[in-house]
Amino acid sequence: MREKVGVFICDCGGTLFSKKDIENMGSGILCNGKACQDIFHFSTLCTDPEFSSIGEYVRKRGISRVVFAGCSPVHNQKLLLEMAQKAGFPPSAVYGVNVRQEKSVNRAVSAINRGIQALSLMPAFELKKIPLNQSVLIIGGGIAGIQTASEIKALGYETTLVESSEKTGGGFFRSERASDDSLARAIQGVIIDTAHKMLRGVKVYTNSYIKDLSGHIGSFTARIHTPEGEKSCTFGAIVLASGTAHEESSNGSGNPLHNSSFMVPMLEIKAAVSNLRRKKGVRPIGLILDMNIDETRASMEMAMNLAFSLQQRGRQQVHLFCRDVRVSAPGLEKLYDKVKEAGVNIIKFEGRLSLEEGEDGVLITCRDLILREEIALHCDFVGVSTFGIGSAADSSLARVVGVSTDTLGQMQDNNIHLFPEQTNRPGIFVVGSCRGQYYVPQIITEAKAAALAVHSLLEKGYLDLELSGPVVDPDKCILCLTCVRSCPFKAMQVDREKGSAVSIPEACQRCGICAGECPAKAIELPVFSDQVLLSQIG
Predict the structure, then answer these.
(1) Cα–Cα distance, 300 to 156 (Å, whole number)
(2) Of 302, 242, 308, which is closest to residue 267 (Cα–Cα)?
């Protein structure tokens, strides 16, 4: 029995086709060699009133597969998935056709017919419900980890937090450099007390780290090294909030702070300047942001507060170097005005900034963005933001959990604004400075978003999965491991019993990389088989 195909045409509010154009299409759209009897015209299918009618059309007409003709299916993946869900279909039963790019009604009809042919060549796929473990692992006990753990625990999930240090609260608040500052110590105490309250009900392992991670979305098994011994625990989802390695790298070779007499990490400059011997006249002090990479509003806030504090001491002139003044956040514009009024000289530079250390200080050379010319400024002492030198996340953790890093070594190789909490591994999320976000208000917001993403994944208790992933021909597979190495989602593994590679359905995203890279042509993605792809050439 042939499956019945319905065609849903959306004219995007009349911008694609007129009503007459839609009527003229009818005779040219063919289903099973005959004029299609199930063509439905929508004006704005992305709106709720029209979208809610899909299920009714499908049930009344006995439709089993749908071709959606409208805007780009690449930009409407979520709409296609929701359409399949509404109709009670597996995702592959809805095929998107981009008719916006077609120049005429006839070409649009041809594109729709190719879509119908593609659907006819696809096999029917099994739908399976995969149970999801209802516990969550948070790696990192700083602000991002604490906030995320608190939010996830409040949503009703068993939550475990692993922190490599002795205490939770984040590296800055545990830092000994705050020990001689009464205000810093008071803030530190409040943070630690607040952290304890927020982590009530959360299982916390300090002085611990993840030794190994196996499994996949919904069923990750982590081996946790703790002071009491090794523990093996299973989790449905994981959130990485592990911070960065900037403090460890701040004194590394090739770093301007390495063995320097007049340059220190920015957070240490107040103590360093206080220890300088007194001198006649005004002492010039430099603060540098964005040394190698563009930093965030958090760095700008930190630098402006330091600059104001140093300028207020008197007999010091602070020069703050940055590529851009990032003040688009509550309170930062007022802080900027206060810093300028205090007399801090803010210099916006472009290109490379040069630091030449001499016998009595540092000569800073750069191109001034406002003056449009090279300037050179001598400073007695310089504080450099270590975030601007490097903000790489923990590379060893990234390797253990199988998460990709970007060119800066951060755990987010997608656009951080479009995919704020996602990683290359389904079920593993990321938040905080390990993905390049240091501004505390934004970290708190993103921690809540990550918690909601975890909740969205786990709330049903199971994962609806269509078994339409790659199919490996064991007779052709030569176990070269190309597919295992090339899969960005860690969805390919070796089945020793079969003697070939296999796909893990829970992790596979049907991208087709494995099929494209396989040198033996042993892998085929049924949704995009050779037959289906050839049918689209026209």
Answers:
(1) 37
(2) 302
Is the residue at 294 inside a domain? Answer: yes
CA angle 163, 168, 171 (to 5 degrees): 90
Domain count, the chain: 4
Residue 129 is assigned to a structural domain of this protein = no
Host domain of residue 64? 5-122
pLDDT in tens, 431-475: 998 988 888 888 899 999 999 999 999 999 999 888 899 999 999
Residue 171 has pLDDT above 70, yes or no: no
Cα 187–188–191 angle (5° rounding)? 85
What CA–CA distances, in Å, run from 376 to 77, 332, 347?
Answer: 53, 28, 11
Question: Residue 53 CA to chain centroid, in angstroms?
Answer: 35
> Last residue of a domain, which of 459, 486, 507?
459
Q: Which residues of 88-124 are buried (b: 16+ CB within 10 A; e: fewer)?
A: ebbbbbbbbbbbeebeebeebbebbbbbbbbbbebee
Structure tokens at 1: 């029995």
Q: What is the pLDDT of residue 146?
A: 94
Sheet strands (E) in 164-272: 203-205, 209-216, 219-226, 229-235, 237-240, 263-265
What is the sign of the dihedral through the CA atoms of 515, 521, 526 and 528?
positive
The verdict on 103 and 29 lying in the same domain is yes
